[in-house]
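User: Last request for today: this protein with magnesium ion, please.
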Amino acid sequence: MAEINLRIGTEYENGELIYMNATGSRAVFICGKRGSGKSYTMGVIVEELFNQEQGEATIIIADPMGIYHTMALPNQTQADEVRHAGFLTSGFPVRLIVPGDPLVRYGDAAVLTKLRENGVEVVPLQINASDLSPEAWCELFDIGMNEAMGIVLWRAVDTLLEKAPHFNIDSILAAIEEDPRAKDTSKEALENRLTAANRWGIFAQEPTSLSDVFLLNQINVLDLSVIDAGTKGLRNMVLDVVSQRLFTERTRERRREEFGLSTKLPRVWLAIDEAHQFVPKGRASLCKEMLIRWVKEGRQPGLSLVVATQQPAAIDPELLSQCDVIVAHKITTWDDINALDRLSATYMEGDLKGYIRNLNRRGEALLVDDETESVTTIRIRPRFSSHGGAEIQEKTVRKFLF
Ligand SMILES: Nc1ncnc2c1ncn2[C@@H]1O[C@H](COP(=O)(O)OP(=O)(O)OP(=O)(O)O)[C@@H](O)[C@H]1O
Ligand SMILES: [Mg+2]
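Assistant: Here's the final one, the structure of the complex with magnesium ion:
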């Protein structure tokens, strides 16, 4: 297999190019205070992966802010910086994957038209009711598995899973209705919740095949911003189902590879922005267990993870301890500095705290790489493609003011 080296920036003092080796499976942790450049850096890593993997890996960004579709456009606002660094600006083929019906989710046909004009391919993602375990169904509605309602729901989903590979919400409703042991109050309460879930438009009769949704020759942006963050666990549920299916499929494909058979799904890179939402410390989340498994057992099936967060202290320490590359931008809060400091490795001369204190500007970061056992202060290279988020907000504010 060819060596994959990501050009993520230059050494702070001597300007030498700095690479991150991505030949094998890796777990990358990006952190820094608000506006320090985390999402931008995640974009740099994704650009490099896309250019270097040449269709050999599926690249997915879980995007809770809805900012990565701009990667379809070249970075015009920083064109001089890009040229100065010796690169060319360019847009990338972006596939925007929207849970549910894109028109319903955006609620605006004009937005869809604009996205398509920018060259973004917009596709729906639908999941089948059978993709969720009985436990996950209870968690989705925040119902305890030992509560009367939880027991009924668990039993209905479990029975259906035994009988058929796929089913829909109507089948769960029917199974609950027919359950002689369920009380009417439980039935009615569950009926309300399941009818509401049907309206989300995310559950489909037939499951979508992941190899039809996530493509190798595009950057796959899973737009989670279209799901209201307040909707209990729904974003986490989508990421749970996607990561679970990718994990299972990759494990199966890996076995085929061992026998020299062809595979439909090669290596997978999953990048998650605002990762504290998905793998929070000290509380459960629908996708937490799966993502921890992804980093712990992903090496063999070729699953890599990139996570970004403002709050290292708010991320589950089990996931953090598995990360073998840290890209730390400026951090100022004590809790977060200490959470990061706990990851200090033996090969560091000082503690991470000391290094972090020396970072000043946006785009500066500390690169800690367990593979090379090195700690380097770097400047992240400028993005080839347009960075969403802050730029869009600035433009909107300007338009608003003048
Ligand atoms: N390496 C860089 N070179 C040039 N500009 C950068 C760089 N990194 C970040 N920026 C600029 O800084 C701003 C903030 O970056 P970004 O959106 O990545 O911050 P963030 O850390 O993700 O913030 P938040 O916590 O709000 O998500 C953007 O306008 C971006 O264009
Ligand atoms: Mg960000």
